[in-house]
Design the sequence.
């Protein structure tokens, strides 16, 4: 008889996807994840501009003039957002939102979650040199330039809910 | 049947004793001795007498037969006047009378039996314990087996028994839930059922909505795209060995285990 929580757990990953869990992801998956992340950062940057405009209007509606930001200023803000976003994602869950959507996870040298400093380094590298991602198409180990330098990996690891009940929990919890 | 075989055997022995005791009334002890002596003497004397008579009869039989033939058809006597012809005429007459009286005789016999049988059998039955007699003398197992062999018991039950009523009454008298809990290893049963019906797949299908299926589809398509691109590039670079995509550390992370924080990193 299993104790609650120690019984056979339900594997929520579809059978077709189980074979490549834990393997390094290829260029298509990672590009799609990156695309989602870039889209989010661009929307956040534009949203920031809109927020500033709204605030300025609320503070002085009579003398309101929309601010004019250069492309470089937008780019700088976008880079800052990207760096913060990637650092937070790598160091906390190992997943950006794009990576979560695509079922990917960034892991460190030993296959575990990255610490803050390496995460910040990798985030800076990815922000400054995004094209380095495409080296994973050529690399025999599916590693991008950032992965080669920082000895990290991006692996398939479809997100699952950890609170999935064991099969016998329901029966054991039932009042006898 | 609530009694065991031992009780049945004892009852059968009692019944047998009862039957034997009633079958032969015992003689007074003072008479038994002389009677036994007389019987023994009679048997001792009778045996040689019967043997001698038998041998003598066989010896004189041809002479008797010859004498009877001569007496039945004496020479020089007309055929119709011989004793044989006379005996034949008597036999014809008797036969005619027998056939004429046959029907009456049968009816008379039936009436006689009607009168005699109850008169004889009823007192006999009153004096014996028929049930005990049957139990003692009849091989009931063989008898019942033979009876069962001649009939289709299942068909008989289906035909004659109100099974719905029987089953309902049986179920009414049982606490089926308690019985199942007491007798059935529910945990093992549940595990077997889960093994048979791929429950995880059912849960996954029921809990993941349309959006989940779309995301799963996109991920699988992306993986297929990865493999395609890898194949093209490997072919272009004329690589013969497969890519080493196994991640370091954990060979294939258990999706149900949360990942721990890495202690050292680059």
Sequence:
């Amino acid at each position: 008889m299993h104790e609650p929580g120690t019984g056979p757990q339900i594997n929520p990953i579809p059978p077709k996807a189980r074979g490549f869990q834990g393997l390094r992801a290829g260029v298509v998956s990672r590009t799609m994840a990156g695309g989602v992340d870039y889209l989010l950062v661009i929307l956040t940057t534009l949203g920031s501009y809109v927020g500033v405009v709204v605030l300025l209007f609320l503070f002085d509606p009579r003398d309101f003039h929309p601010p004019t930001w250069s492309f470089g200023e937008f780019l700088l803000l976008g880079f800052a957002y990207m760096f913060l976003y990637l650092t937070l994602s790598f160091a906390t869950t190992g997943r950006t939102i794009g990576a979560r959507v695509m079922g990917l996870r960034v892991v460190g040298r030993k296959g575990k979650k990255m610490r803050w400093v390496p995460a910040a380094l990798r985030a800076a590298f990815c922000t400054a040199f995004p094209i380095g991602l495409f080296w994973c198409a050529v690399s025999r180990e599916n590693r991008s330039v950032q992965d080669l330098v920082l000895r990290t990996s991006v692996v398939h690891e479809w997100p699952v809910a950890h609170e999935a009940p064991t099969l016998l929990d329901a029966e054991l919890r039932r009042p006898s | 049947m609530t009694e065991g075989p031992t009780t049945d055997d004892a009852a059968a022995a009692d019944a047998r004793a009862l039957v034997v005791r009633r079958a032969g009334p015992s003689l007074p002890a003072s008479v038994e001795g002389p009677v036994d002596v007389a019987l023994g003497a009679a048997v001792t004397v009778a045996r040689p007498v019967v043997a001698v008579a038998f041998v003598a009869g066989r010896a004189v039989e041809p002479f008797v037969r010859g004498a009877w033939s001569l007496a039945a058809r004496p020479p020089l006597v007309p055929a119709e006047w011989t004793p044989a012809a006379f005996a034949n005429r008597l036999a014809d007459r008797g036969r005619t009378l027998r056939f004429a009286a046959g029907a009456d005789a049968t009816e008379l016999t039936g009436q006689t039996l009607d009168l005699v049988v109850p008169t004889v059998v009823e007192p006999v039955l009153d004096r014996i314990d028929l049930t005990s007699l049957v139990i003692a003398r009849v091989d009931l197992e063989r008898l019942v087996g033979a009876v069962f062999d001649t009939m289709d018991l299942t068909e008989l039950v289906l035909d004659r028994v109100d099974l719905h009523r029987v089953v309902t009454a049986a179920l009414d008298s049982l606490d089926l839930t308690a019985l199942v809990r007491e007798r059935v290893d529910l945990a093992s049963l549940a595990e077997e059922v889960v093994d048979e019906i791929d429950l995880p797949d059912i849960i996954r299908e029921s809990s993941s909505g349309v959006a989940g299926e779309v995301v799963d589809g996109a991920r699988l398509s992306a993986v297929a795209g990865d493999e395609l691109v890898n194949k093209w590039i490997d072919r272009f670079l004329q690589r013969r060995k497969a890519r080493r995509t196994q991640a370091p550390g954990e060979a294939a992370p258990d999706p149900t285990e949360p990942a721990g924080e890495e202690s050292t990193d680059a």
About this structure: Residues 153-195 of chain B form one domain.
